[in-house]
Amino acid sequence: MKTFTNFGKAALVATLLGSVALPAFAETPPNMLVIANRIDDIKTFDPAESFEFAGADVSRNVYEKLVNFDPLDLDAGYAPQLAASWDVSEDGKTITFTMADGHVFASGNPVTAKDAEFSLRRAVLLNKTPSFILTQFGFTADNVEDTIKATDDKTLVITLDKQYALSFVLNCLTATIGGIVDSETVMANETDGDMGNAWLRTNTAGSGPYKVLDWKPNESVMMDLNPNYGGDEPAMKRVIVQHIQESATQRLQLERGDIDIARNLSPEDVAGLEGNADVKVVDELRGRLMYWSANQKVEALTDPKVLEAMKYAVDYKGMADSFLKGQYTVQQAFLPLTFLGALEDKPFAFDIEKAKSLMAESGYPDGFDLKISVREAQERIDIAQSLQNTWGQIGINVELIVGTGAQTLDRYRAREHDIYVGAWGPDYPDPNTNAGTFAYNPDNSDEAGATGLLAWRNAWGIPEMSEETLAAVVENDTEKRKEMYLALQKEFQQVSPFGVMFQQIEQNAMASSVENFVAGGATTAVSYWVITK
Fold first, then answer.
1. What span, in angstroms and rounded, lies between the C-alpha atoms of 503 and 522?
2. What phi, psi does 483 have (nearest 5°)?
3. Is CATH 3.40.50.970 the classification given to domain 286-505?
């Protein structure tokens, strides 16, 4: 039996549990899941605003959507959830959803088409970071009353600006922004016309398996069962996610039995668990990409020779074979492997002499100074330090600016960085989820405020590539569409101010008794409600 050897830790978990006290020297209760994860990027629980990794994990377990993924069969793609079925008009522009029975919000209110209408309209009207996922279909603040409409409690009709592949539309509705909120509860908590946004940042109003009971920023999130959940009752009645930054601490707590799952172990700590029969490691190829990007407001970073030199002065293999070993594979295109049209070509290899030659040909043969903005997470800092070293060899003097996830994202979204080192994960399982952020920027002005678009965040104006991206999203021939994305990525690799480096292989370590842990594959977020132990 695993035992507690730290009374302070036991007291902390007991405090989080409220009235459910843990006995000393015991495993976590059989109906409770305790997870260690980095959750300092959580800014809000509002599905119309949430756009961070840890926030998406919470949302997946709190909110249901019109269509969603079965965590035990992700390869099957989207399936009905709040919508029992849907019909498409002959011109392909109107989709009529018929709502399923038996779905109830945590408040006790039944889920209706009116709630779906409210939620989708609200996401467009609030116009927060992820709103582009919906507005790309032509929804605007001026037309949502006509284009997103519940004709009765069972029927929702959405009208698109033109015909798109149905799979593209439905895949977008599986994104976090597709979460359906309890309109009555949310509007009861409205202040100053914010449609409940301030309240939903720290509270939840969904029909999913869980509801948020408590959130302490940068410390923990605690979820309890939604007493009115319409599906099978989850085995885990309470889920606690603790913010633990250090891999070594996560590993120690897992081995002691303080936690059930450790989600941020380094390759060294994963290797250190070998031979421990009480724990296991589950590998899962995720859609998350690790990349660097160069703000085009910085003059030196607009020089094509400089950007090319920087791409050759990255030790891809060295990083993948050392501190990222087993957890990232080299990938240099903006679509993750497993996606339609994912490009496997890797045109850049670590070549300092070539990089030096390119710098000599550039407008900055003597180099220059720049700053890398990076989140306080060990593997990201390690990557940034590697770049600092190798770019330094070609005359680019780098200073690291390290901050919390929220601080770093705020700087990035304000276009105040020089170089950003970070991760990007797909919002839905369609190639446009990344093409529409990396290679699309219809308005490069500061006033556009298109913070959900990575091209905009880096001030990269690309009208022609934006048109290519739009053309790909309306192509109904799957093979032609695939070829369009391959061509788009090849062009992007050569001319963009982005250096895509790696795709994540997530290694989650857990107690050997834990079953059905699914991190979400390349398509979605973690699912707690199917876990047993």
1. 10
2. -65, -35
3. no
Helices (H) and strands (E) in the chain, counts: 19, 17
Q: Residue ranges per domain, the chain?
A: 12-241, 286-505
Q: How many CA atoms lie within 13 A of 297 on its CB side?
A: 15
Q: How many CA atoms lie within 13 A of 521 on its CB side?
A: 16
Query: Which residue's structure tokens are 């080299």?
Result: 330
Query: Is there a contact between 242 and 37 (Cβ–Cβ < 8 Å)?
Result: yes
The pTM of the whole model exceeds 0.70? yes
Q: What is the mean pLDDT of residues 143-163?
A: 98
Rounded distance between C-alpha atoms, residue 22 and residue 488, angstroms? 55
pLDDT value for 394: 98
Distance CA 98, CA 155 (A): 5
Q: What is the CATH number of domain 12-241?
A: 3.40.190.10
pLDDT digits (tens, 9 = 90+) for 200-226: 999 999 999 999 999 999 999 999 999
Q: Which residues of 431-454 are buried (b: 16+ CB within 10 A; e: fewer)?
A: bbbbbbbbbbbbebeeeeebbbbb
Q: Which residue has the tokens 């680019």?
A: 396
